[in-house]
Amino acid sequence: MSLTEHLQELRRRVIISLLAIVVGTIFGFVWYQWAPGPVMPLGEIIRRPYCSLPEELRADLTSDGACRLIATTPFEMFMLRLKVGFLAGLVVSSPVWLQQIWAFITPGLHKNERRWTLSFVTFAVTLFVAGALIAYFIVDQGLYVLMSIGQEYQIAALSGQQYYNFVLALIVIFGVSFEVPLVIIMLNLAGLLRYEQVKDKRRIIIVVLFIFAAFITPGQDPFSMIVLALSLCLLVEMAFQFCRIHDKRNAKRNNEWASLDDDEASGPIAAPAPIGAATGVAGASPISGAGAVAAPTLISNGGGTQRTAEDRSIRARASAPNFFDDVL
User: Fold this and answer.
1) What is the DSSP annotation of 248-285?
2) Which helix (H) or strand (E) holds 33?
3) Is a pLDDT exceeding 60 seen at residue 77?
4) pTM
C-alpha cells in the first residue's frame, strides 16, 4: 500500500472507533440513571462503597434518610454523569476500537510477532481488570479508615466529584500497577533480565514496592497501601518464578557455551601443536623460447648520430598533420 492508502485506512479505522465510543458514551449516560431488570444503574454501582459505610460516618442531608452525595456547583451532576458515561462507553466499546487497532497493525507483523502481541495484550487486559476489581471491593475499607479519623468532631459530606475522582483514581492506579509483572516477564523474554540478577534482592524489592504503594495510593490510607503492596509482592514473585523456569529451559536448549559471558572461555585451551619443518621450494621450470627478435637496423645520419628504423618511422608518423585525431 502507498502512504496515501495507509492514511486513508487509518482515517477509516479512527472514524469507526470514534463512532463506537460515541455510541458507548450514550449507552453509559443512560445506564448511569436507568437499568433494566435486576441490573443496577451505573451511578448506584459507583455509589455503593460509600453507602456501605456506617450511617454515623455519613452526613444525612435528606429528609428520607437516603444515601446521597452532594453537588456544590450547578453543572456538577451533569458533568459527572457525562464523565462516568464516557468512561463506561470507552470500556463497553473497547472490543470495537481494539479490533480496529489490531487490524491496522497486524499486516506489518510476522506470524510469531502476532502471536506474542496477542498474548501480551490479553495478559495485560486481564491484569488490569483484576487490579480494578480488587480496588473496587476495598475502596469502602479505605474510606472507612479515612472517614473514621476524628469522627467525634467532624462528619464527612462528600461531593460526587470528589468521591468519584477518588474511586476512579484508585481503580486506575491498581489496574496500572498490576502491569508490573508483565514488564518483568517482557524484560526476561528479551534477554535483558535474568533470574540470577534478582533472586538475591527480594528484600530490597519488597521495600521498594511498599514505598511505591505508599506514594501512589490516592488517599494514602494504610489499608489500600497494604493491599496494593502485598498484591504487587505476590505478582512480582510469580513473575520471578516465570523467569527462573524460562532461564532453566533456555539453558537446556542452548549449548553450554551459550550462557557464558563474552570474555569468559568456554573450556581449557589445547596446547599448540609443533610447526613442521619447512619444505624446499621446487626449481623453476624453463620458459619456452620465444622467437628471435630482429636486431634493429642502424641507419647512419649525416651528423654522425644513429637511430633505429622504428624510431625514424615513429617520428615520421608524428609529423603527419592528423596524427593526434584519435586522441582528441
Assistant:
1) HHHHHHS-GGGGS-TTS-SSPPPPPPPPPPPPPPPPPP
2) none
3) yes
4) 0.70
